[in-house]
Amino acid sequence: MTRAKQDRLLALLARDGEWATAATLADALGVTPRSIRSYVTGANARVSPGVAIESGPSGYRAGSDAATALRAEADAGTPRDRLHTLVRQLLDSSDGIDVFDTAERLHVSSATFDADLARVRGLLGGTQLTLERSAARARLRGTEAAQRRLLSRLAHDEMDAGSFDLAALRRTLGEGSVGANAFGPFKTDLVARLGALGWYVNEFGISDVVMHIAIAADRVSRDRPLESAAEDGRASHPGVAEILDELAERHFGVRLGGGDLKHLTTLVLTRVVAPGGAAPQDQARASLEPEVEHVVREVVGEAASEFLVDIADEDFIVRLALHVQNLLHRSREQAWSRNPLTRSLKSTYPMIFEVAVFIANGLHERLGIPLLDDEIAYIAMHVGGRLERSRRADQLLTATIVCPGYYELHELLRSSVDRSLGQAIEVVGVETRVDPDWSSIDTDLVLTTIDPAAAADRGERIVRIQPFLTESDVERVQAAAGRIRRARRLTRLRSELEGYFEPSAFLRGLDGLDEEAVIRRLGALLTAQGVIDDDYVTRTIQRERLSSTGFTDALAVPHALGMTATRTAIAIGIADPSIAWGEGRVQVVAMVAFSENDREAFQTVFEQFVEVFSERDSVQRIVRRGTDFAAFLDELVAVIDG
User: Fold this and answer.
1) Residue 511 to residues 506, 579, 586: CA-CA distances in angstroms?
2) CA 331/CA 320 separation, integer angstroms
3) What order do you get walking across the sheet with 130-134 strand by strand?
4) Are strands 501-508 and 564-581 parallel, antiparallel or unpaired?
5) Are 446 and 463 contacting, i.e. CB atoms less than 8 angstroms apart?
6) What share of residues in the chain are helix, strand, coil (percent, to 5)?
7) How far separated are the first and last CA of the chain, in Å rounded?
8) Same structural domain, 532 and 616
9) Pair 338, 156: CB distance under 8 Å
10) pLDDT in tens, 229-252
11) Are residues 572 and 628 in the same domain?
C-alpha cells in the first residue's frame, strides 16, 4: 500500500508541476501530513542520490527524477511484486506449481503464501479463470484467451496511468521473454506499414495492441498458441494479417498461427486504424452496419438537443459510428482500449465528458455496449474534436491597434498581429493618431505602441507592444487575452451561481459516507425545498454509477441525466478531511439539479465551476473557511473575483 501511495503522490505532483503543501497533498490522498513526509522520503530513496520530490518553504513539487522514480521496479519482496511473480509462474505452468517450493523461493511463510494466493483469486474477476488448490499444488484453469487477458491486466497494472511502458511490459512477461528488445522497432515498422495502406493510426491504441502482440509472441514461443478464432468478415483484412505475420517473424523470431493472426488482426482493425483521405464518409460506409449508424445518429441527435451543442454533423456521425462499430467488436472479446488522457479530459473538459457519458449511456441502452471510463474518453475525444471544428468566431476577442502613422508601419504591424495572434484576437480597428481618443476605444484589447494618456483606463485590456512585433509582445497579448476571457467566464459564473445556490442545502461534515449516501443526504435537502423528487435522486445515483463525477482532485458534481428539476439549484457538501469518491478523493460535493429552462447554464456550471475547483489553493481556502453557507459563498466569490 505504501508503494501505491508513493506512486499516487508522484503522479499527482508530476501532473500538476506546482508546489503543494503537505496538508493539501494529505487531503488529496486521504492520509496525514506526516504520512506525506514519509512518502516523500520513500520516493526519493528510489532514485538516490537523485531527487524525485523537491522540498521547500512552499511544500513539495516533482523533482527532475520523478519519472524515473515512477518507473523504478518494486523491491522483490513487496506483496505487489510477489503477486505478479506468482501469477506469471501459474500462467507459465500448465501443470501448476508446487506451493511449498514456490513459497521457499519467494522467501515467505506458508501463511503469507496462502494470503498471496487469495490475492490472485481477487485478480481473476471477469477473466473466466479459476484458481485450483489441491494439496501441495496450485493451478489456473481456463482458456488461453482468458490467460492472456490476465497477462494484459498485469501489464496495465505495471504501467502508469495506462501509458505504454516497455520496461513494465518486460517485467510482466519476464526479462527472458521473446523479443524483449524488439518491441520498439516492431511498433515503428507496424505504424509505417499501416500508414502505407492509407490508414490513420491511433497512437494511443497501437501501443496497447503492441502489448497484445508481444504477449501473443511470448505465449506462442512457449507453445501456448491461441485456439482458432471465429471468422468475422467485418473485422478482417488479409493485408494486415500478412504484415503481422511478417513482422512477428522478423522481430520476434516467431511464426503466429491462424488463431493468433485472426485475433490480432481484429485488434488492429478495431483499435488502431481509421480510414484516411478527404472523404471519410465514403470510405467508412462501405463496412458500416446500418443498425450501428442508425443508433449513433439517433443518440447524437438527442445529445445535441439535450446539451445545446453542435455535434449533429454528418462527418462526425460517420466517424463516431465507425468507432462504435469497432467498440462492438472489442466488447465481444473483452478487448478494451486504455486511454491515458481519460483523467485529464475529465478534469479539463467536464462538459465535453458529460456529453460523452450521455452518448455512451444511449449506446449502452440500445446496443448493450459496456460503460468504461477509458472508452467514454475516446467518445469525448470525438465530441471535443467536433466542437473544436465548429467553434464560433465570436469567441475571438476584438482588438484595436494604436500605432502613429509613419509610412506603412501600422500596416506592417497589423499584418504581424494577424499572423501571430489571429486565432486569439480579431483586429477591428487601427488608430494612427499620436493623440487618439482613448475613451472612445471600446474593443476588448488595445494594442498600443505608445503610452496611453494619463486619463485612459490602464486595466488588463491595454497592452504595450513594439512597432515591430516581438515574441515577448505576442506572449504578453496572449496572457492578457487569457486573463480577460477567464475574468468574463468567472463573472458570468458568479452572477449565475448566486441565483442557483440554495442556502438551506449546505452540509458540512461527510465523514464515513460513500458516494450514494452523500447524494441521498444532499438530495434530501433539495427535495425538502421542492426542487427535485426522489426519482431525481435515484437517477443521480444511476448517473454516478455510469462514470464518477469526481471531475478534479477536490470536486465532485453529481447530477442526473435529464433536466427535470423545477428550477436549477445546487446543494453543497464540504468534507474536511477528504472522502473517497470514485477512484480518487474529494473535499467539495456540489449536487446540481438542472431545470429544462436553464439548459445553457449547464455548460457554465460544468466548465467554469469545475475550473474554480481545479486550483488547490482556492479549494483549501474555501474548505477551511467555509464553515457555514454564508462563509462558503463569501469565500467562493472572493476566489472568483481573484
Assistant:
1) 15, 7, 12
2) 16
3) 97-98, 137-141, 130-134
4) parallel
5) yes
6) 55, 15, 30
7) 39
8) yes
9) yes
10) 555 555 567 788 899 999 988 888
11) yes
Q: If you write DSSP's letter for every residue of 371-418 in order, what string do you get?
A: --HHHHHHHHHHHHHHHHHT--GGGSEEEEEE---STTHHHHHHHHHH
Instruction: Please indicate, yes or no, whether residues 421 and 520 belong to a single structural domain of this protein.
Output: no
Cα separation, 572 vs 508, in Å, equals 8
Round the average pLDDT of the chain to a whole number and report it: 83
Helices in 30-143 by DSSP H: which ranges?
33-46, 66-71, 79-92, 99-105, 110-123
CB atoms within 10 A of CB 37: 15
Answer yes or no: do 562 and 521 share one domain. Answer: yes
Domain boundary at 275, 302, 324, which? 275
- Residue 175: inside a domain: yes
389 neighbors 476 (Cβ within 8 angstroms): no
| Distance in angstroms (rounded) separating the CA atoms of residues 615 and 573 | 18
- What letter would DSSP give residue 278? S
Torsion region of 335: left, alpha or beta (phi above 0 gives left; psi -120 to 50 gives alpha):
beta
| DSSP-based three-state secondary structure for 470 | coil
Closest CA to 308 of 598, 531, 1, 60: 598
Q: What is the spatial distance between Cα 350 and Cα 604, in angstroms, rounded to a whole number?
A: 11
C-alpha cell at 484: 480577460
Report yes or no on 385 lying in a domain.
no
Task: Indicate if 257 and 194 belong to the same structural domain.
Answer: yes
> Which residues form the domain of 621?
491-641
Which amino acid makes up residue 325? Q
Tell me the CATH number at 457: 3.40.50
Number of domains the chain contains: 5
Helix (H) or strand (E) holding 420: helix 409-421
- Asked whether 401 and 473 are in contact (CB, 8 A), the reply is no
The string of pLDDT tens digits covering residues 556-612 is 999 998 888 999 899 999 998 889 998 888 999 999 998 888 877 777 677 777 878
Same domain, 356 and 400: no
| pLDDT at res. 161 | 44
Question: How is residue 41 written as a grid cell?
Answer: 522520503
Question: Is the domain of 509 the same as that of 460?
Answer: no
Last residue of a domain, one of 211, 245, 275: 275
226 and 285, same domain (yes or no): no
Crossing angle of the two packed helices 258-271 and 314-332, in degrees rounded to 10: 150
